[in-house]
Amino acid sequence: MAEEKKKKAAGSVVITVERCKGCGFCVEFCPPHALKLSDQYNVKGYHPPALISREMCNGCNMCGMLCPDFAIYGFLQNKKSGKGSDRER
Length: 89
Ligand code: SF4
Ligand code: SF4
Prior knowledge:
By secondary structure, this protein is an alpha+beta fold. The protein is built from two helices and five strands; from the N terminus they run βαββαββ. The chain has helices at about 25-30, 60-65, and strands spanning about 10-15, 35, 50, 70-75, 85. The strands form two sheets. The protein has a three-stranded antiparallel sheet with strand order 1-4-5. It is globular. It starts with 9 loop residues before the first strand and ends with a strand. Mean pLDDT is about 85; it is low at about 1-5. The protein binds iron/sulfur cluster (2 copies). One iron/sulfur cluster (SF4) binds near residues 30, 32, 58, 59 and 63.
Protein backbone atom coordinates (compact mmCIF):
# COMPACT_ATOMS: atom_id res chain seq x y z
CA MET A 1 0.00 0.00 0.00
CA ALA A 2 1.43 3.31 -1.05
CA GLU A 3 2.10 5.59 1.83
CA GLU A 4 0.10 8.76 1.55
CA LYS A 5 2.35 11.76 1.89
CA LYS A 6 0.65 14.66 3.54
CA LYS A 7 2.63 17.81 2.94
CA LYS A 8 0.96 20.53 4.85
CA ALA A 9 2.36 23.97 4.20
CA ALA A 10 3.52 25.50 7.43
CA GLY A 11 4.53 29.07 7.84
CA SER A 12 6.03 31.41 10.30
CA VAL A 13 6.72 35.08 10.68
CA VAL A 14 9.65 37.33 11.47
CA ILE A 15 8.69 40.34 13.55
CA THR A 16 10.90 43.36 14.07
CA VAL A 17 9.24 44.36 17.29
CA GLU A 18 10.80 47.81 17.58
CA ARG A 19 9.52 48.92 14.18
CA CYS A 20 5.91 48.12 15.01
CA LYS A 21 3.41 50.87 15.73
CA GLY A 22 0.67 48.56 16.90
CA CYS A 23 -1.79 49.46 14.14
CA GLY A 24 -3.15 45.91 14.07
CA PHE A 25 -3.41 45.63 10.26
CA CYS A 26 -1.50 42.36 10.30
CA VAL A 27 -3.76 40.93 13.00
CA GLU A 28 -6.95 42.13 11.30
CA PHE A 29 -6.15 40.85 7.84
CA CYS A 30 -4.29 37.60 8.52
CA PRO A 31 -6.48 35.12 6.60
CA PRO A 32 -6.31 32.28 9.18
CA HIS A 33 -6.29 34.73 12.15
CA ALA A 34 -2.94 33.43 13.32
CA LEU A 35 -1.83 36.68 14.96
CA LYS A 36 -2.75 38.64 18.05
CA LEU A 37 -1.35 41.80 19.56
CA SER A 38 1.03 40.89 22.33
CA ASP A 39 0.63 42.02 25.93
CA GLN A 40 4.24 43.21 25.76
CA TYR A 41 5.24 46.76 24.83
CA ASN A 42 8.01 47.74 22.47
CA VAL A 43 10.25 50.76 23.12
CA LYS A 44 7.72 53.04 21.41
CA GLY A 45 5.02 51.87 23.79
CA TYR A 46 3.06 49.83 21.26
CA HIS A 47 1.88 46.25 21.38
CA PRO A 48 3.58 44.29 18.59
CA PRO A 49 1.93 41.23 17.07
CA ALA A 50 2.72 37.66 18.01
CA LEU A 51 1.73 34.35 16.51
CA ILE A 52 -1.09 32.66 18.39
CA SER A 53 0.16 29.34 17.09
CA ARG A 54 2.72 28.32 14.50
CA GLU A 55 0.31 25.71 13.23
CA MET A 56 -2.14 28.42 12.21
CA CYS A 57 0.27 30.37 10.02
CA ASN A 58 0.39 29.32 6.37
CA GLY A 59 3.24 31.63 5.36
CA CYS A 60 1.10 33.65 2.94
CA ASN A 61 2.88 36.92 3.84
CA MET A 62 -0.32 38.95 3.80
CA CYS A 63 0.94 40.51 7.03
CA GLY A 64 4.18 41.52 5.33
CA MET A 65 2.37 43.04 2.37
CA LEU A 66 0.09 45.11 4.59
CA CYS A 67 2.45 46.29 7.30
CA PRO A 68 3.13 50.00 6.71
CA ASP A 69 6.38 49.82 8.67
CA PHE A 70 7.93 46.62 7.27
CA ALA A 71 7.87 45.23 10.78
CA ILE A 72 6.66 41.74 9.89
CA TYR A 73 6.84 39.22 7.10
CA GLY A 74 5.70 35.67 6.67
CA PHE A 75 7.45 32.78 5.01
CA LEU A 76 6.91 29.15 4.21
CA GLN A 77 8.72 26.68 6.36
CA ASN A 78 9.77 23.19 5.33
CA LYS A 79 8.27 20.99 8.05
CA LYS A 80 10.74 18.14 7.47
CA SER A 81 13.93 20.15 7.65
CA GLY A 82 12.57 22.94 9.82
CA LYS A 83 14.31 25.36 7.49
CA GLY A 84 12.52 28.40 6.27
CA SER A 85 12.37 29.62 2.73
CA ASP A 86 11.71 33.29 2.39
CA ARG A 87 9.40 34.32 -0.37
CA GLU A 88 10.36 37.12 -2.66
CA ARG A 89 8.64 40.29 -1.67
S1 SF4 B 1 0.88 45.87 10.57
FE1 SF4 B 1 3.06 46.24 11.13
S2 SF4 B 1 3.02 48.10 12.39
FE2 SF4 B 1 0.90 47.31 12.29
S3 SF4 B 1 0.69 45.99 14.14
FE3 SF4 B 1 1.35 44.68 12.43
S4 SF4 B 1 3.59 44.61 12.59
FE4 SF4 B 1 2.90 46.35 13.80
S1 SF4 C 1 2.20 34.82 6.93
FE1 SF4 C 1 -0.04 34.84 6.44
S2 SF4 C 1 -0.92 33.32 7.84
FE2 SF4 C 1 1.12 33.82 8.65
S3 SF4 C 1 0.76 35.46 10.15
FE3 SF4 C 1 1.24 36.45 8.17
S4 SF4 C 1 -0.79 36.82 7.21
FE4 SF4 C 1 -1.06 35.32 8.84
